[in-house]
Design a protein that fits this description.
The protein is mainly α. It is built from seven helices and three strands.
Length: 112
């Protein structure tokens, strides 16, 4: 509390993230909290064009194919929708939009 009274944040350590990392986090947050990612709406709200979105997230619609086949997501009109069953595997969907996760295969636990 003393730090706050002095007008300072009581933070000992912190992590600075880039604007690009903030956008990737926003994509994942959108998916995990709302179980929906309307890519054109997201891009418009964040002021990002589709090509930059793809560049930041490494998104490829074909990577959703197995999740669609398994009934975990739907993908229509550039909108990813998590199904009721898919909500149990939401981390698997979210990782498709996280380039940091995509480059460290084997580092994180696998889903059943």
């Amino acid at each position: 509390m003393e730090q706050l009274r002095k007008g300072r944040l009581p933070v000992e350590k912190g992590l600075r993230i880039t604007e690009d990392q903030q956008l990737v986090r926003a994509v994942i947050e959108q998916l995990m909290c709302n179980q929906l990612l309307d890519i054109p709406v997201f891009c418009a709200e964040k002021g990002v064009d589709y090509h930059r979105f793809v560049s930041l997230t490494h998104f490829e619609p074909t990577r959703l194919d197995s999740l669609i086949k398994d009934g975990l997501v739907t993908f229509n009109n550039q909108c990813v929708n998590i199904t009721a069953t898919g909500s149990f595997f939401i981390r698997n969907v979210a990782c498709l939009f996280d380039p940091a996760y995509q480059h460290v295969i084997g580092m994180y636990s696998q889903s059943v």
